[in-house]
Amino acid sequence: MQSMLELTGAQHEPAALVLRGCVMMIRAFRTIALSTTTMIGLTAAAQADWSQISNGSTSHGSVWIDEDKIETDGVIRKAWEMLDYSKPQTDAGNLAPQQYLSIITLIQVNCSAGIATVIQGRRYSGNAGEGDVVSSFDFHASKTDFKRDLPASVLDAEQRAICK
Description:
Lipocalin, 29% helix, 8-stranded antiparallel sheet, 8 strands
């Protein structure tokens, strides 16, 4: 079977050029689609600029905050935090519990009242938000969801970093 370029022949050179251009465009779009898919596949950890606020001396592991993406609305702040564990944790909330090494959550802090709540998050099989998503959750914040912090707790360190 002859190719489309061979069928066009020399007398139809402009058509052959158009066809070659179409083939090149299809190849370019395929490359762009692959690049876009790769970019979308980046983890939240790779996209964030994390600042460590706790070094892992607590049972919570190392705690990191993405200070560049803190949203402010009056005394309310929303920020992404990452807990990074040295030992696997178990997600007991699932019917088939799975282990994870890090969790990235969106927290909301009322800086004047000194209270905070978790809005949403994902648990990852690897450290620093890498690996497979083991589970995810989404809460709707209300006044009753907020928790008071205890001095020298991880929540206290988070509030100091987020409300400064």
